[in-house]
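Bug report

Summary: structure tokens for UPF0482 protein SAMN05421784_1401 differ between web form and batch submission.
Environment: batch mode, default settings.
Steps: 1) Submit the sequence below via batch. 2) Compare with the web form result.

Sequence submitted:
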Amino acid sequence: MSIHSSLIVKNISAIALVLSLFWQSSAFAASCTSDSTCVIINGSETSLNKEKARQSKEEWNNEKGLRQKTYNRKEKEFDKYDVEVDNRDDCLKSANINAYWEPNTKRCLDINTGRPIKP
């Protein structure tokens, strides 16, 4: 009887081990879906994936350049406007009673001569 019981214990432990291995492999397979993040080492390193990554990086760099140009243009326009506002304020606050601000030319002019003056 002891031979049968030791054989049963060995079989049950072997079955339990096999079932746990099947459970682990199915758990790993279920977690690597298209919606999840899985790390696969050298599993999907194909030339097609490398080309897609290269194109994506190139597209990102092109868009980055365009964003930088747009930002620089906006910054330059703002700087122009800022200088214009400062010049207008200086002209209007000037102690020179002959100074007036010309909005079309955006300059501070002498009322008598029409020449630009520095307030």
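Above is the batch result. After comparison, the two runs are identical; trailing whitespace caused the diff. Residues 76-118 form one domain. The beta strands are 99-102, 107-110.
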